[in-house]
Amino acid sequence: MTTAVEELEQTPVRHGLLRYAATKAGGALLSIAMVIVATFFLFRLLPGDPVRALAQGRNMTPEQLDLERARLGLDKSIPEQFLHFVGQTLRFDLGVSYEYKRPVLDLIGERIGSTLLLTGTALVVAVSLGLWQGARAGWKPGSKFDKVSTAISLVLWSVPTFWLGLLLLMVFAAGIGPIPGIFPTRGSSSVDKPDGFAGVLDVAQHMVLPCLTLVAVVYAQYLLVMRSSVIDEVGQDYITTARAKGLRDDDIRRKHAVPNALLPTVTLVFMRIGFVVGGAVTVEAIFSWPGLGQLFYEAIRVPDFTLMQGTFLLITVSVILMNTLADVVYHLLDPRVRSA
Amino acid sequence: MRKLLAVLAALCVLAAVPGTAMAADPAPKKVIKIGVTQAVDSMNPFLAVRLVTGSIQRMIYGFLTVPDSKTLQPSPDLAESWTTSPDGLTWTFKIRQAKWSDGQPITADDAAWTFNKMMTDDAAKTGNGPAVENFASVTANGQELTIKLKAPQASMLDNPVPIMPKHVWEKVKDIGKYDAEVYPTVGSGPYVAVEHKKDQFVRLEANPDYWRGRPKIDELQIIFYDNPAASIVGLKKGDIDLIGRLNPSDFESLKGDDNIVQWNTQGRRATYLQVNHGATTSDNKPIGDGHPALKDPKVRTALHYAIDKQKLVDEVQGGLAKPADGSIIPPLYKDFFWEASGAEKITFDLAKANKILDDAGYKKGADGVRTMPDGSRKLQFRFSIHTDAPVEDKLAEYLTGWFKEVGITLTTKRLDSSKFTEETGTTALFDIAISGWSVNPDPEEVLGTHLCSRRPTASGDGGGTESFYCDPTYESLYLEQQKELDRGKRAETIKKMEERLYTDAPVIALYYPNDLEGYRKDRIAGITPIPEDKGLLYGGSGYWPFYTLEAVSKDGASADGGGSSTGVIAGIAAGVVVLALAGFFVLRRRSGAADERE
Amino acid sequence: MSNVTWVRRRRAIGRFWADFRTHRAGVAGLVILAVAVVLALLAPLFIDSSVTNVVSGTGAKMAPPSLDDPLGTDESGRSVLLMIWWGSRTSLLIGFLAALLSMVIGTVLGIAAGHFRGWIGAVILRVTDWFLVLPSLVTALVLAAILGGSTATIIVAIGVTSWPSTARLIRAQTLAVEARPYIERSLALGAGHWHITTRHVLPNVAPLLLASTTLEVASAIVTESTLAFLGVSANKTSWGTMLRGSYDWGAATAGAWWYILVPGLCIVTVVMAFTLCGRALETVLNPRLRTRAHA
């Protein structure tokens, strides 16, 4: 129910938000420009002849090599090459993979869905679990719950992702002793994946172990951040006031402390989204998950520098966009920032 | 957030409803699952270069000829018979009356189109370009295919190019950008590809119209693992039925499983050392920074004496290889294999190695390291290997130990693959490097890697040499075998080439690694290797093993059914956990809302 | 330095230690760390790099723990215990040096961003935020892949991708310090940028820097092992390369649990120790930051 008065009040806020969003978008564009420039020079650091590095010693005649140089624009001066590269990138042309002989963008397009499914699910689970547990732990620091939560998250934080993944694979996919290996050893679905619900279940079953690994590692961070945010809130005057007013403890926590603590935490979650992406590279390699992380790992292993460059660009740019979005949403949600 | 959780909860409720409608086929399909640790690079045979893709191509497409399953000699495939002109320059193939999997007849025109495409379109050369390099023209007349060559070529009958259906492929505009992801594929091999999920699997179905007759199984699945350890688990669990190209430790870990057959036979690969014996470019100018002592054949021979190949096999390959007393062609290829004997044979003998070096004037210094006869340099060599290759690391440690005994210092230099290829194949910035080659039934390709013409050009572009070798004797023998169409006589010439490589030692063969595979005998009732006598399964030449696959027949309650029912259970369990979590949050939220209303 | 300052500093350290001692987890972490570092430093007195030599391995291959080899052997018959001991040197060295590099970059840029208002500060802040957002593991992988694997490359790859959080922290701290009245007094007395930053700001941010660096070492060790696992390694025995070896040689399928568990547990223990230590330091030095998540 929106009254006229409220609408009146909201108008300047919207203007403010728009301006804020525009500033943020400008910042994001600048960041993306920096990524493009940095990528160009980073991949010019490659020792030796880039064409030969790209061709990986495959037999090529001098004519073929020259052709390849011309195709990549390497026969031109560095400034010209740079303009060429920027032009291509702005047209979403990420080049053609040497290993797969296909446009890098197509290769990415085929795999991005799997990655979004895996990281998205892991993020939802990790955020919900981490924030809930962190809020409870932070509300009563020093309690048994807090001690156990903090201990668990510190251990998980110290565990290398790949090691945890391998252990989970060996225990729950291979089966050890009385534990049956009920989870599959690879991939995102069975070859003869049934349709309908059974198909959804099939994917869910394939996702359990990779998702668990990814959750375990990122959830620890969220827990710790949320915990400290709540501890900060607990020390605030308004909580004391609320308590003095005789509000129920649970209510204060749920309606005041947690929402206020949530905002900085969620921003941090998005700031650290690159961390999840890094985790996805290892997790996908271990569980043969057919996503972007595996593609990137393949590019590193071959090495296929065009593919590496393309996936690197895409990953960083999407992380930047995600951050900007989170910033704007944060601004939209946070009453303190809005009124300021 | 609340909405999201609600949606999640709803999803989980739906998912938790027992999915009893699991497909139960009336007649169970006979399916065999092959695990591979390499993903398919391209389904377009003109572009694909990976081994796994080559294996799949062999199952989908026909070739002019294929190696015979017993002798590995060329035998008819799509070409029923062939004749050669007296000068060896004109080959005429009679193409079999058979049908593509879409019912169209196979004609010589298909083959001619395939070869002409490769000869005229650079983009189509990526996959098998060198195979048509020597072709002057290819023409078709009904079922008769005529290939005119620029120079005689005995290896014509080992042509690696799959014959493509012209009526399907001529519509492709830009072959270099075509991904060929159209299913079912139109082919002429025992199987038809029906599905490909990127980085996951390729599904092949039996081709009912295959000219040799339909394969005995219904479906073949090629399943990709990014994690080799997981693939071994997969085999033990029965997620896959066969896996090839195992390393010794994975092979050993299959021991003791009653359902698994450990397949250990001679392989098609040779592992050797490449010695920088004075690298030159194709116009005979010195290149690189090889140690001058290695130009002396006596030093190379002394090195050869200082290598305990049996020890390497035992320690580096876990005993699963054969020490090499020959050269670059492994004993699998009986017709072409050559082995040193008598006085020529070099066996591990440190005293002899020391004597050779002493006699040649390489004196040991106070530190036990020898110097050049003119005293200019110490005998300190670099050994180039790949990073992240534990086998090569071990090899290096052993060589270093033995060479130290004969007064030679060896230091290990680890290089990533592109740098390694550049330094050991183009710029010659090495002394000794690890090397090896997987040999085809016709050894011409590997023999060609030691020709003068394969050395890099003066401008520094690689030609594909594996040794920078340039030897008149070897060169004339190569030309001789190339022209010789009599298999027996050609084999004699090839053996002389191997002998030359053995005694002159631009390369020193170490061992021939075994072919290690594993398969489940509770799934696979029969599989015929190639060659039939102690041959290879996956990774062999030709589709034979996979054409002859027989599945264990089983009734409705198969292990597969069991697998998917545990799958359902696990899926439900996972769903329930997520559901419980989501429900918990929703409930807490609700109670919060209820509080508010109070 | 005058006698008075000296006494004041010593008292501060005494107070700090008394405070730190109350954090039992922090002390436990410190003890583990001290033991690990001392062991790593003393290793050359007892063993040398020959324990990592594949040829000199005396035990059976992949032998389970026994009296001869208390933690079993690897695929070449080398003692896992001795390799862990020797490998700790590489792991800790990379951890410390990468954290040091990250600290130096972070401190210089952080102080500069806080001290120089105006466009210089704005630009540095922008760059810092940009680096902060970059997926660090992915960037480190690309860097290491391009530069080739060596100890120096790995250190650079980790250091260059992990400094931004330090820089942000130091910047905030610098702003707080420079808001204090005595800085204004100094400025009035004609102190230059160099004097202000090195004499006033740096000593004040140093304690926090210590805490932040300790946490940085923890994540650098984990990153090193991850890079090694993904095939970009320093070519020296470290805990990460040992895990990679156990993976390459199929230790899991061969049932050689000691080969997989021991290096992993070492990483977890040492990283935990650094983390506990770092968190305790943070709490002692800056109660407001008591529970800041590291990384």
Automatic annotation (TrEMBL), chain A:
Pfam hit, one: BPD_transp_1_N
Localization of this protein: Cell membrane
Protein name, as recorded: Peptide/nickel transport system permease protein
Membrane disposition: Multi-pass membrane protein
Nucleotide-binding listed as a keyword: no
Keyword Cytoplasm: no
Record SUPFAM superfamilies: MetI-like (SSF161098)
Family under the similarity heading: Belongs to the binding-protein-dependent transport system permease family.
Highest taxon in the source lineage: Bacteria
Transmembrane spans: 27-46, 112-133, 154-183, 203-225, 261-287, 307-333
Record InterPro entries: BPD_transp_1_N (IPR045621), MetI-like (IPR000515), MetI-like_sf (IPR035906)
Provenance organism: Kribbella pratensis
Domain ABC transmembrane type-1, chain residue ranges per copy: 112-326
Subcellular location, principal: membrane
Keyword tags: Cell membrane, Membrane, Transmembrane, Transmembrane helix, Transport
UniProtKB/TrEMBL annotation, chain B:
Keyword Transmembrane: yes
Keyword Transport among record annotations: yes
Recorded superkingdom: Bacteria
Residue runs in coiled coils: none
Cell compartments where the protein resides: Cell envelope
Signal peptide: 1-23
Domain Solute-binding protein family: 74-450
Entry keyword set: Membrane, Signal, Transmembrane, Transmembrane helix, Transport
Transmembrane segments annotated in the record for this chain: 568-587
UniProt xrefs under InterPro entries: Peptide/Ni-bd, SBP_5, SBP_5_dom
Pfam families found in the cross-reference section: SBP_bac_5
Sequence similarity: Belongs to the bacterial solute-binding protein 5 family.
Protein name: Peptide/nickel transport system substrate-binding protein
Species name: Kribbella pratensis
TrEMBL record, chain C:
Locations listed in the record: Cell membrane
UniProt-listed Pfam families: BPD_transp_1, OppC_N
Keywords: Cell membrane, Membrane, Transmembrane, Transmembrane helix, Transport
CDD domains: TM_PBP2
Membrane topology term: Multi-pass membrane protein
Keyword Transmembrane helix listed: yes
Domain ABC transmembrane type-1: 88-278
Family: Belongs to the binding-protein-dependent transport system permease family.
Protein name in UniProt: Peptide/nickel transport system permease protein
